[in-house]
Design brief:
alpha/beta; 5 strands
Length: 210
């Protein structure tokens, strides 16, 4: 979802299917990864899978963490290089090819996770569970009607940091997890659980870099 007011300020709210699917695969296989940039378990646990039975789950967990961070980096790259405006002309086609190649290099369902060839156990799990993981995608609880008051937050952030409100922009990616968890991944980009305090995370996303 994209909400905008005035000529420039913008706020992007919504989930990301690749990130949500990666979390689903993590929880279905019993991988445990503790890192500051990794959300807690899903609110609705997926069915358990035995695809990694006999594997070194610590080792696969390290591969999963590398994959997770690569997915995050691809999402950030997409944010920094949005699709061109206008019609679906040559410029847009070039952008689409570059964007698709970026996700393929990371390892995505579109090419059967070929980008995970260096991590065969994780690749096998993704190939077996990928379609179920993407099919279980959960819509964000942060709804459009909550955004009606965000104009006041924009004014607050602009006044606090002495900037033009129309220069503010932010992205909040919501995962189907709980615990009120959220992290500022980089200025303007927040990753959050479904039940994170929405005013707080929107304020963080809109706050400009120092």
């Amino acid at each position: 979802m994209r909400i905008a007011s005035g000529p420039s300020w913008s706020l992007e709210l919504g989930d990301d299917p690749f990130l949500s699917a990666a979390l689903w695969i993590r929880d279905a296989t019993g991988i445990v990864v503790e890192a500051d940039d990794v959300p807690p378990p899903l609110n609705v646990p997926p069915p358990s899978s035995h695809v990694l039975d006999g594997e070194d789950l610590d080792g696969v967990g390290g591969d999963w963490l590398d994959w997770w961070r690569a997915l995050l980096a691809a999402r950030l790259a997409q944010r920094h290089n949005p699709p061109p405006g206008g019609d679906f002309g040559e410029e847009w086609k070039q952008w689409a090819v570059t964007n698709q190649a970026r996700w393929a290099a990371v390892g995505s369902i579109g090419d059967e996770f070929a980008g995970l060839a260096h991590a065969p156990a994780l690749q096998r799990a993704c190939r077996e569970l990928g379609r179920a993981a993407h099919g279980a995608r959960t819509t964000s609880k942060i709804q459009h009607d909550r955004a009606m008051g965000y104009g006041l937050l924009v004014d607050e952030v602009a006044a606090t940091h002495h900037v033009d409100r129309n220069t503010l922009c932010g992205t909040v990616i919501v995962t189907p997890t709980g615990g009120g968890w959220w992290r500022l991944i980089e200025p303007g980009f927040v990753l959050a659980s479904n039940d994170a305090p929405h005013q707080e995370i929107v304020r963080a996303a809109l706050t400009p870099a120092p």
